[in-house]
Amino acid sequence: MKDSQARTIYLKDYQAPDYLVDRTDLTFDLDPHATLVTSRLKVRRNPAVARAEETLPPLWLDGSDLELLSVSVDGELLPAQRYQEKPGGLALSVDRAAFELEVQTRIAPEANTSLEGLYLSNGMYCTQCEAEGFRKITFYPDRPDVMSIFTTTIVAPATYPVLLSNGNRIDSTTTEDGRLRVTWEDPFAKPSYLFALVAGDLQHVEDHFTTCSGRTVKLQLFTEARNIGKCAHAMASLKHAMRWDEEVYGREYDLDIFMIVAVDHFNMGAMENKGLNIFNSACVLASPETATDAAFQRIEAIVAHEYFHNWSGNRVTCRDWFQLSLKEGFTVFRDAEFSADMNSRAVKRIEDVILLRTSQFAEDAGPMSHPVRPDSYMEISNFYTLTVYEKGAEVVRMIHTLLGEEAFRRGSDLYFERHDGCAVTCEDFVVAMEDANSADLKQFRRWYSQAGTPVLEVTDAYSEANGEYSLTIRQHTPATPGQNDKLPLHIPVKIGLLDESGSPLPLDASGREEMVLHLTEAEQTFTFNGIASRPLPSLLRGFSAPVKLRYGYSSAQLQFLMRHDSDPFNRWDACQRLALDSLCKLQQQYRAGAALESPDTLIEGFAAVLDDVTLDPALVAKMLSLPSAQELAEQEGDIDAAAIIAVRVFARDAIAKALEARFLARYRALDRRKPYTPAAEDIAERSLKNTCLTYLCAAGNADSLTLAKTQFERGENMTDTAAALAALVEFGPEEQSENFLETFYQQWQQDTQVVETWFGLQSGSAKFGALERVQKLMSHPAFDVKNPNKVRAVVAGFAMRNFTQFHREDGSGYNFLADQVIALDKLNPQIAARLVTPLTRWRKYRAEESGQIRVALQRISDSGKLSSDLYEVVSKSLGQD
Ligand code: 0A1
Ligand code: ZN
Fold first, then answer.
1. Residues having CB within 6 Å of any atom of ligand 1
2. Which terminus of the chain, N or C, has less C-beta within 10 A?
3. Which of 279, 384, 792 to mutate to test the pocket of ligand 1 (most atoms within 8 A of CB)?
4. Which tens digits make up the pLDDT trace of 437-483?
5. Residue 5: its pLDDT value, please?
6. Where are the beta strands (DSSP E) in 234-336?
7. Dmax over Cα atoms in the chain, in whole Å?
8. Whose alpha carbon is nearest atom 11 of ligand 1?
């Protein structure tokens, strides 16, 4: 499979650009097969690298899949010997230190299925340039440290009445031949990855926002006409985000207009192009009838995330792609805090921690493991990872925890002020935090360069005679590819101590009941005095660091924490640990061929949680949710997929039967039938109600299925309808389930987002997601292999959420995925490289599974020339690179 183009790029080789581009003037003459792109650049030698009396180095312009038509310098056509087209770009010989360069290229958006550069989605032109998509539009120094002022002219037939780009619209005319011609100018210098263009027959909703200094900003959300009724939630979210960024970070929006466009074909969630955010339609469009609560909350978070990038990403950008977490880690931290302020803080934290523990920890322990600031890559698209985003956000959160709220704000103010308009590094961010506060984050910096998940082992001792309690914490980080020796990290460990009545104990003379321990050594002991009786520690409150913490809690102690801990996150965590302990015990019984014992301790714990009506219902729903199969798989090596599935189902059914009356009582109390709102309290109630419904149906009582059927038929909102349908599909008689699925499809077949939900429901179901069903779905008229949302719903839904069927004994699940990955690599390499992830974990499974998974991976490797995206993941997983 060797791909001659797949070369490794190293952070240590970074060099500043030889030339800068002060102005970029682009003209697009749009055509699906032959779009003409004319680029006029004001280029000059970068004074930071220029030496006196030197010969000028060649100008390198990145370019890929382009047809070069002409090159001129200062108005004169350049003879062919002055430039050379090479793989990946164009080298020009240069004879003056400043000049105007004009390059004409031709591209074919219609044929572009990679969804990078300029492409068509449902007949609408749109762009995606991060990270290296601009080079598919024209030859350009496509690197984030080249920042330029862009002017964009779009010429298109009148059938594309909406023509958009970054900044302000400065001109709009009709050409003699009846085409539209619109010019946009963005006054803020930006790198090419933030460029955007949209052209289509679109409708829009409009609103405005008055900034803290009194300026009016026009807000517009563009979509195809059929979706115009689904924009209100995103617009409201945008306004909340704009206000929040002013209040919490002092950041005001800078342009007079902010636009969002929804497109159906998109590789990721959304993109923060300056003044013109482009969104995956699933991450922006919602109505109560069509979107679940989870979708509403996701939209709020992503709209905010992209908006926040205007400062953390656009005004201050990354010097190079190794610094990606500079903008992503910080922005994810910002959007998480925003969501926490808008909804339940504890529940948001729990959701983020589940994602970290199931998926980021797995990444840290797998063949693609890398630090938050990677030091090498083959294909940067493969590094838009949970490590860069989520662990990166944890790193920023730890700085926040170590410095405190006010000091953190001083640091962020200095960072924005010092680096506005610049392309900088993670180091610059840390230095700003230090300088603003005279803080020392020297050792803390290791979080940026060291990969892997640290493990903390905690032991304690108590001396009644001295009233002294001590906690000893040992830290170690397992080796990761290319990094065998790890150094101790600076880890904030937030703790509290509980007395035997469950009340918090004062931790020192100041009387505080919670504190952050600074763990900096490989082993360190922290002592507390004046402790009258042996306390119970509440450790790593709020998940104050992305680590695995081990402390030998007994079941009784976990139940005690579940009831009394003043930290809601740790209450949930105690409940999870109790569930994990029970499930691990059951797995041992299963693997030993013994009879499975009823998980009575867990049932007792869940009963207490259900009975506590003072708890936030959303928190109760989270506490009652068993760890997923993926999370269980994360617990140990030598994974036995069948054992995991069997014990999870056994425990779920045992809980369902034992607590049936309680589930019914709470279901009835919560089934209020009030009009839908996406307010946090209402979402909380629906989440507990539907958790109860699922357990009720699992208990196997026919009356419960009737409840689900009634809820489904009432169809009051998509949250309740989809939850009822999922329960009917999972627990109802097969024939009836088919009918419910069909009824649902008939009702919603015109709605792209609902059809995606419908696909996902089937592919992720152990019962209906049998491989044959998934294959059938792929030939369904609504399936489109060129649409990543559809591929994610059907193929990734099967491989990542359908543990039972994916790990079928005959290996057919693995083979199916390999076939899909090979086929997709020809169309969309980014999606193929993501889709292969479940196969990369082969080393963690028992010999039976791991052998089969490895064969499937090897088959991909042997299938011919792979894209650089897929090549990197497959070769690293097989251990060849
Ligand atoms: N910067 C975007 C993520 C993004 C990255 C790459 C994309 O195309 C391949 C698209 C979006 C964000 O963080 O939201
Ligand atoms: Zn982002």
1. 116, 128, 130, 267-272, 305-306, 328, 381, 384, 830
2. C
3. 384
4. 999 999 999 999 999 999 999 999 999 999 999 999 999 999 999 99
5. 56
6. 257-263, 270-271, 276-280, 317-318
7. 96
8. 271
